[in-house]
């Protein structure tokens, strides 16, 4: 069979999937409305806490007053479940641009810059300003750090705090939206692909399709193209809804967002195919699907930063692809970073897509 025929058959399968979806009127509304509801309700109804948030203090002052301030910050012992909320480290001779790059890279949640004349100005009772840079892409953590620093600086005296908005004025919704998009793509691509194949196996449709000249490769390719169209359309609708309904801020490249979602969708399609080949009916697939996808919703940093979950749960999160999709989406959409900043996430997501998709194709061709 020629490549032209393979592609033509794949497109026929794609059109079949789209037509089947269009007939399911009751499914269309929740398919696109559910993630929007998640953003609105979780965004306004949930918060979070932090622990061991890394803070860097850059002290260019050599006087005793800055040493006292550093000691006071380091002695802050507020904790959550026995874990300190902040982990403070110190350095000298770092510019604001370098400090911002540390925050962009995710090394620190906040950097406090103490000027070289801090102690001298206090002695003269002159006004002095400290600069606090925070990772506003994590509003829960940055909000707590800002609140603590403002409380510390609120005592009478000439010291004030300048807090530049590195990524603009962000809210919890800005933190939530990129991860909800990734979560929607993951759960949607796995569930719709796997349930379609499992359903076709259960009612015998897949057997009748394979009795036609359409090859197994064309079936998989057609379902994959359909998923890419569907999931990217859902992402576009969700981003537009977040922008117009709740004022989401988009700071990065749309092409990079599309790249991440395309790779992630391929991984989700592969995972759906793998799970569907292990079961014989729809009910079994949905139970297996819940076992793998539901934990991802709560432990991969969708609603809260990873620093707020127990250590043992965080180790599990680092084994789940959604963790890296969340990080890549926030790095692009909130921080406005480029390809180099998400290279590690892309490598892991690409490996996930290659492993699951190749395994799914192998199992489907063997069993179908």
Distinct helical segment count:
14
H-E order: HHEHEEEHEHEHEHHHHHHHH
What Rg, in angstroms, do the CA atoms define? 25 Å
Q: What share of residues are in beta strands?
A: 5-15%
Q: If strands are numbered along the chain, what order do they take across the biggest sheet? A: 4-1-5-6-7
Number of domains: 2
Total beta-strand segments: 7
Q: Which stretches are low in confidence, meaning pLDDT under 50 for 5 or more residues running? A: none
Give the CA-CA distance, first to last residue.
19 Å
Structure explained in plain terms:
The protein has helices at 3-23, 25-45, 64-74, 96-104, 118-124, 139-153, 172-203, 205-210, 216-246, 254-277, 282-299, 311-317, 321-333, 343-367; strands at residues 53-59, 79-80, 83-84, 86-91, 110-114, 128-134, 159-162. The two termini are 19 Å apart. It is built from 14 helices and seven strands. It folds into two domains: 3-45 and 171-367, no CATH class; 53-162, abc type-2 transporter like domain (abc type-2 transporter like fold, 3-Layer(aba) Sandwich). The strands form two sheets. The protein has a five-stranded mixed β-sheet, with helices on both faces. A two-stranded antiparallel sheet has the order 2-3. The chain is elongated. The chain has 368 residues and is of the alpha/beta class.
Summarize this, please?
The chain has 368 residues and is α/β, with parallel strands linked by helices. It has helices at 3-23, 25-45, 64-74, 96-104, 118-124, 139-153, 172-203, 205-210, 216-246, 254-277, 282-299, 311-317, 321-333, 343-367, and strands at 53-59, 79-80, 83-84, 86-91, 110-114, 128-134, 159-162. It has two domains: 3-45 and 171-367, no CATH class; 53-162, abc type-2 transporter like fold (3-Layer(aba) Sandwich), CATH 3.40.1710.
């Amino acid at each position: 069979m020629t490549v032209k025929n393979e592609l033509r058959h794949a497109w026929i399968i794609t059109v079949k999937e789209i037509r089947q979806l269009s007939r399911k009127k009751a499914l269309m509304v929740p398919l696109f409305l559910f993630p929007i509801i998640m953003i609105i309700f979780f965004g306004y109804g949930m918060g979070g806490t932090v622990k061991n948030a890394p803070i860097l203090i850059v002290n260019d002052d050599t006087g005793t007053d800055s040493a006292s301030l550093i000691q006071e910050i380091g002695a802050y012992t507020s904790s959550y479940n026995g874990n300190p909320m902040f982990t403070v480290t110190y350095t000298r001779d770092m510019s604001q641009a370098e400090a911002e790059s540390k925050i962009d890279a995710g090394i620190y949640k906040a950097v406090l810059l103490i000027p070289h004349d801090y102690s001298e100005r206090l002695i003269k009772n002159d006004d002095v300003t400290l600069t606090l840079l925070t990772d506003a892409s994590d509003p829960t953590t940055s909000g707590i750090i800002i609140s603590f620093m403002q409380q510390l600086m609120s005592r009478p005296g000439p010291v004030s705090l300048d807090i530049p908005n590195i990524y603009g004025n962000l809210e919890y919704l800005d933190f939530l939206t990129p991860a909800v998009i990734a979560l929607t793509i993951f759960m949607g691509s796995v569930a719709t692909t796997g349930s379609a194949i499992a359903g076709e196996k259960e009612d015998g449709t897949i057997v009748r399709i394979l009795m036609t000249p359409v090859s197994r490769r064309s079936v998989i390719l057609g379902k994959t193209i359909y998923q890419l169209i569907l999931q990217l359309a859902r992402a576009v609708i969700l981003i537009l809804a977040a922008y117009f309904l709740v004022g989401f801020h988009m700071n990065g490249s749309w092409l990079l967002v599309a790249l991440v979602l395309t790779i992630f969708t391929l991984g989700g399609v592969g995972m759906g195919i793998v799970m569907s080949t292990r079961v014989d009916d729809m009910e079994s697939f949905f139970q297996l699907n819940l076992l793998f996808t539901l934990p991802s919703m709560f432990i991969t940093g969708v609603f809260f930063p990873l620093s707020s979950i127990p250590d043992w749960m965080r180790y599990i999160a680092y084994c789940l692809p959604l963790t890296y999709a969340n990080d890549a989406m926030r790095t692009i959409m909130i921080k406005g970073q480029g390809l180099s900043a998400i290279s590690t996430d892309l490598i892991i997501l690409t490996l996930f897509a290659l492993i699951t998709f190749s395994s799914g194709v192998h199992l489907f061709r063997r069993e179908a």
